[in-house]
Amino acid sequence: MATGWSYAELGPDQLALVAEAERTLDADVVMVYRPSARDTVDPEIVTADGLRPTALEPSQLEVLRGLETRVGGVMVAYRRAAH
After folding, report:
1. What's this model's pTM, rounded to 2 decimal places?
2. Residues 6 or more apart from 28 whose CB is under 8 A from it?
3. What residue numbers bound the domain in which 76 lies?
4. Which single residue of 14, 20, 39, 75 has CA 20 to 30 Å from 65?
């Protein structure tokens, strides 16, 4: 039973979809996570470089959800916080 999250292992086609999401959502980074038996994603490491989850408009959420189905994971769009 999955109780945590890990980074998704992606193939070339899936990585292309992630790049498409970054362009479409005007995000600095889009990360893909999958349920896991244990947590391997450390939120402090993810946000250490100033990355913060991006607030998305409803139409952008639709795009993201459609891509999630094709990638097979949960996608989170991030922007770097201004220093």
Report:
1. 0.84
2. 22, 51, 78, 79, 80
3. 4-80
4. 39
